[in-house]
Write a structure and sequence with these properties.
Shape: elongated
Strand order of the largest sheet: 1-2-3-4-5-6-7-9-10-11-12-13
Largest sheet: 12 strands, antiparallel, barrel
Number of helices: 2
Structural class: mainly beta
Distance between the termini: 42 Å
Number of strands: 13
């Protein structure tokens, strides 16, 4: 009877590996760094680098879900205040020893508020408000690889996104008549695809790389990011983030470093 019970319990463990391996992790990381913002249009071509601050938060149950949020702000770049927000979450399905399926979505926003008085050549005054918001749904599958002390997962995915652009430009040229305020409102939808790569070594060194392509009507737009974490203890470590994001009106690049806290 004892052997029958043991075989039954072992069978359950094989069929339900999530019960044995599920882990919940929460991470909070404040950051400081720099941002390079490039705005390009038929009237303007502005590129500048300024100071950046942000905070990242993540909540993961390795067999059920993941959710993360990242907010950043640059008070003075390209004569502008730049604010960005990234939110995404995935729900995991059919976890096994070899991988799991993921269904989820996200929201990303970028706000640029520019005011320049006698600072841009050819203009006595220039102001611009540019809000970019896109939200997407996606589905993919994680594939696990565990060579030695490394724990690696790869998730290819595909989905669909909607994008809304709102704002206006007001320019007072140094010479000639002042044109009216110009609206830059626009909206579009497109397919997306990408790959997420996660790797850790003995739970103290972590790397996360992401690439997403938006198949926009005006041409593909790429979004690439990298995060590296090095933990000195189970709760404290240092973190580095990099991101390159293309937009229809330019691009954003940032480098940030900070302290990572887990609980």
């Amino acid at each position: 009877m004892y052997n029958i019970h043991m075989r039954y319990l072992l069978s359950l463990a094989l069929l339900l590996p999530s019960v044995c391996r599920a882990e919940t992790v929460r991470v909070v990381a404040p950051y400081l760094g720099s941002i390079t913002h490039h705005y390009e249009s038929s009237r303007l071509d502005l590129k500048d680098t300024g100071a950046l601050r942000g905070v990242y938060a993540q909540w993961v149950n390795t067999e059920k879900f993941q959710a993360n949020a990242f907010f950043y702000s640059a008070p003075d770049v390209n004569y502008s205040r730049v604010d960005g927000l990234h939110l995404n979450a995935d729900y995991y399905l059919l976890p096994s020893r070899n991988g799991k399926y993921a269904v989820g979505g996200g929201i990303e926003s970028l706000r640029v508020d520019l005011k320049a008085d006698h600072k841009i050549t050819g203009y006595d005054y220039l102001s611009m408000k540019n809000d970019i918001l896109y939200y997407y749904g996606r589905a993919g599958r994680y594939f696990y690889f565990r060579p030695g002390a490394f724990d690696v997962s790869v998730m290819p995915y595909a989905g669909y996104a909607l994008e809304d652009v709102s704002g206006d430009i007001y320019a007072d040229p140094a010479f000639g008549p002042t044109p009216p305020r110009v609206s830059i409102d626009d909206s579009s939808s497109y397919a997306i695809g990408g790959v997420n790569l996660n790797a850790s070594y003995n739970h103290f060194l972590e790397a996360q790389a992401k690439w997403m392509r938006r198949f926009h009507g005006d041409g593909p737009l790429d979004d690439c990011s990298l995060m590296l974490n090095f933990f000195f203890t189970r709760r404290f470590g240092v973190s580095y983030r990099f991101k390159y994001m293309e937009e229809t009106s330019g691009s954003v690049v940032y480098h940030m470093g900070g302290v990572a806290i887990t609980f």
